Amino acid sequence: MSLVVDATIARGEFSLSVNLHVDAGETLGLVGRNGAGKSTLIQALAGLIPVKSGSISLGDDVWDSPARGCFVQPEDRHCAVMFQDIRLFPHMTCLDNVAFGLRSDGVRREEARDRAREQLTKVGADELIERRASGLSGGQAQRVALARALALEPRVLLLDEPLSAVDAASRPMLRDLVGEALESFKGAAIVVSHDEADIGVLTGVIHNLVC
After folding, report:
1. What is the pTM of this model?
2. CA–CA separation, 7 vs 64, rounded Å?
3. Does residue 211 carry a pLDDT above 70?
4. Which tens digit of pLDDT belongs to each residue from 140-173?
5. What is the full DSSP assignment across 110-178?
6. Is the pLDDT of residue 73 over 90?
7. Is the pLDDT at 204 greater than 80, yes or no?
8. Interacting residues of 116 by C-beta distance below 8 A, sequence separation 6+
9. For residue 201, what pLDDT is reported?
10. Among residues 177, 118, 101, 169, which one has the least CA distance to residue 142?
11. Interval 6-45: pLDDT, tens
12. Minimal CA–CA distance to 93: which of 61, 127, 124, 130?
């Protein structure tokens, strides 16, 4: 099932035309300078902002097409996002943060917590399960955010600057972790960064995003 984007996205005076095709099991790395529209594209794919023209589709499902009067809400897109600013709930434990999306999808509490615990272990964050998110370092928070995204078993995975909050010493290890997660991900994945070195370790296509 392929993610296909052939659209123009506008925000104020800013406009970005994008033509992308990402197959299931493929990772696309998007590189661009600050202000090139990387995060804007992620938000459009996630359904947080509509496209101005053109369309976004996953397989036969059209997510956004102004010409057809079609717009699928974010919660119905089977899409998970790891945002640049992470967006963990600071008052919740890491386990509850990861389980939150599952609970919102109607998964029973114990099953959601079991799946959350499994994902935290996979990203090497099992020791953080009972820690509150407010006390995490940047690298720890990124691990929890990645676990939260993967726990939803999405068909599309979007990573917006996944290493931006990580110090230099932790960056190589987290790069490897993200790379391993993407290699085993069965859906379509997009990683955006301003730094080619960050996504150069990932298998897949690197595309330069120019507004």
Report:
1. 0.89
2. 9
3. no
4. 898 999 999 999 999 999 999 887 767 777 778 8
5. HHHHHHHHHHHHHTT-GGGTTSBGGG--HHHHHHHHHHHHHHT--SEEEEESTTTT--TTTHHHHHHHH
6. yes
7. no
8. 95, 96, 98, 99, 102, 147, 148, 151
9. 59
10. 177
11. 999 998 889 999 999 999 999 998 888 888 888 899 999 9
12. 130
| Rounded to 5°, angle at Cα 63 from 77 and 30 | 80
Give the tens place of pLDDT for each residue, 98-114.
Answer: 999 899 889 999 999 99
Residue 89: what residue type? F
Exposed/middle/buried for 100, CB within 10 Å: 0-12, 13-18, 19+?
middle
- The span from the CA of 7 to the CA of 45, in Å, is 11
- Which distant-in-sequence residues (6+ apart) come within 8 Å of 198 by Cβ? 162, 163, 171, 175
Neighbours of 17 (CB within 10 A): 15
Greatest pairwise CA separation for the chain in angstroms: 49
Tokens linked to 139: 């690298």
Closest CA to 162 of 182, 187, 133: 182
Q: Which pair of structure tokens corresponds to residue 22?
A: 């990402």
Give the per-residue pLDDT at 30.
Answer: 87
Tokens 């994008």 sit on residue: 18
